[in-house]
Amino acid sequence: MYTQVPIIGVVGHKDSGKTAVTESVVRMLTRKGHRVATAKHVNQEGFSLDTKGKDTWRHSVAGANPVASVSDIETAVLIKDGVKKFSLDSLLGFTSEADFMMLEGFSWLVLSDEHVGKILCVRNMEEYEDYKEKAKGEILAFCSMRRLGKPVLRIDEDSETLVKQVLGFLRKKQRISKILDCLPGLDCRKCGHSSCEEMALAVYRKEMRLKDCVPLKLVSKLKTRITINGSELPIQPFVSEIIRNSILGMISSLKGVSIGGNEEVQVEITS
Ligand code: SF4
């Protein structure tokens, strides 16, 4: 998820201030020039933005899915699948232009997803303790409409602090994403981490260095030569790098293969 838009989830029970928090953060971020996308879970059975009898409703009754309506001021895409088929990945397909995605509600997704930054709205300290125990991953803030005292922020008084937390989360995600771009993306586990994403996080935390990535280390040691029917083909360093990355990446990720950096690797292509 690090390569995608950072997601922030605003979660809380009924009347805990979720919409006020979302509204306040969106307003402050957009004023600072950020592009923010939002999604809200509507906890009302059978709710639809579509209107019975309208043209888009008739399209969907006829079997169309999704149905888009485009006017001079907006485009709405109605996906007739409901919450059971909803996933964060499907939502992110619509948000590539945004710097942030904010979710209001969706507690079952947000609380268990370590990649999602969490703003947790509480009505009392019991809810604070409960969320503290349940939430996995980064909690950006606890907020309340009431004065509960530290560490719970007051929604109407502490919005600057809240936005600082959100921007810090964005900067962290951007740095991890840049580190991830430098890794080969093979998820070969040779660095001791279960994926390149985990490794990027370890590099960000200064627990590992980029050069601890085994395929990356090999890339800097080995040279690339292409010969066709015995004649060497002159290649640019950039092309050499791409070929080297691709071939070594594929070979070093094979089970049981250990490359030290001094081997001669031959790929023979015959008709
Ligand atoms: S060794 Fe490199 S390519 Fe393999 S999982 Fe680690 S970071 Fe990714």
How would you explain this protein's 3D organization?
α6 (159-182) crosses α7. The chain has a domain at 7-48 and 77-170: P-loop containing nucleotide triphosphate hydrolases (Rossmann fold). The strands form three sheets. Strands 2-5-1-6-7-8 form a six-stranded parallel β-sheet, sandwiched between helices. Strands 3-4 form a two-stranded antiparallel ribbon. It is globular and about 75 Å long. It is α/β, with parallel strands linked by helices and 271 residues long. The protein is built from nine helices and ten strands. The chain has helices at 18-31, 55-61, 88-92, 107-110, 125-134, 159-182, 196-204, 214-221, 237-252, and strands spanning 7-12, 36-40, 67-70, 75-78, 100-104, 117-121, 139-144, 152-154, 226-228, 231-233. β6 (117-121), α5 (125-134) and β7 form a beta-alpha-beta unit. The site of iron/sulfur cluster has 16 residues, from α7 and α8. Residues 183-184, 186-191, 193, 195-196, 199, 213-216 line the site of iron/sulfur cluster.
Write the layout of secondary structure elements.
Layout: E1 7-12, H1 18-31, E2 36-40, H2 55-61, E3 67-70, E4 75-78, H3 88-92, E5 100-104, H4 107-110, E6 117-121, H5 125-134, E7 139-144, E8 152-154, H6 159-182, H7 196-204, H8 214-221, E9 226-228, E10 231-233, H9 237-252
Parallel strand pairs: 1-5, 1-6, 2-5, 6-7, 7-8
Antiparallel strand pairs: 3-4, 9-10
Helix pairs in contact: 1-6, 6-7, 8-9
The structure holds iron/sulfur cluster.
Residues 183-184, 186-191, 193, 195-196, 199, 213-216 line the site of iron/sulfur cluster.
